[in-house]
Amino acid sequence: MGRAFVYLCIISEEAVAPYERPALSKGYLLPEGAARLPGFHTCVGANDELLTTKWYKEQGIELVLGTKVISADVRRKTLLTATGETISYKTLIIATGARALKLQEFGIQGSDASNICYLRNIDDADKLVNAMKSCPGGNAVVIGGGYIGMECAAALVTNKIRVTMVFPEKHCMGRLFTEKIAEYYEKCYTSRGVTFVKGTVLTSFERDTTGKVTAVILKDGRHLPADMVVVGIGIRANTSLFEGQLVTSMENGGIKVNGQLQTSDSSVYAVGDVAAFPIKLFDGDIRRLEHVDSARRTARHAVASILKPSKTRDIDYLPFFYSRVFTLSWQFYGDNVGEVVHFGDFTSSSPRFGAYWVNKGRIAGAFLEGGSRDEYEAISVAVRRKAKVTNMAELEKQGLAFAIQESQTEAPDSGLAVVGKPTYAWHATAGVVAAVSIAAIGYWYGRKRRRL
Hints:
Mean pLDDT: 89
Helix content: 10-25%
Strand content: 25-35%
Strand order of the largest sheet: 4-1-28-8-20
Structural class: alpha/beta
């Protein structure tokens, strides 16, 4: 029997091959030895091959870069590009990711100023880098206290720019951190020169005759001097191409998929930031997760589902988030619901502390700062197994030792579907599509082109 030929193409609005997006808020913004293309591409397998355009060509994968898909017809299985080209597919993977929310969407006047920056793609990163270079020793105002706000603030002070962070919540990383955890990181940032302005929002800008922002005006009346502004106020899933054609999740704004990452149309799959999928650990609750680990794993699972649907179980994903700033590094697994138990040393300059979230007598989530590889693995195991907690005071006393002990005990088969090392080069690449190419769509089979 002959081997079936499978054709893979990746369409991306960006002009460069898919890249590691997390590097943009970390290595790309460093003042020295900054990451640049092609040095931070996603790696493949054990060989750590850089996925340059040459690599894709060698694997027989076609990259259609700098090309925007402006409409999709799921019933006819066609895509229309901005250049007027119609492309047919047999199987489609939607990996359109998400877009950064803009101040214009909230009616903020003057938010199109040239020194207002966002961070979602390489063009954004280049603009941010140029803005930093244009105001050495100057003032930056960061709008937002989440992931992007915290990582950009760290990069700005590392570049010797004075930073003021503004957000409406009581503390930074309000969606994840407890007040105690946030207090540690805020003190660390403050010691490096970052000023926090909490419980308020911006209302407008002062601008000079060229239109550049010179100050940020807050709702509480304060005027903050600004040579540049960085905005990190959240993202929205890129679902517009498929609205009215595929079922979406009203709760979290993504394209709804089943445990095989399959949408309401059997020939279409969705992965990464745009996908709202069931989490077995949360009793099948539908979640849309905004993190690179989710993008990689959902992409791998979708490809396994396409190649071997009868042998691929429903995805059993453990939600995971991480961040690295300055000399700090933390990881979180699970869900931050239930009663919180903190543990460890919150006073050291080389900290190792964390927290468990206990819901209905079991570990629902776990956070750890400054852990080793084995310690991070241990807390992930405790969450994965929903480790039973009989005494909250004892859990606080044991701290990290509780998770380590749990990870060293034998557990029954969890039924986790494990996708092994990719057999085909393009199998691995599908993970790249979802993880790093926000405007990319992967599709298989029967490519047809015609000009309208």
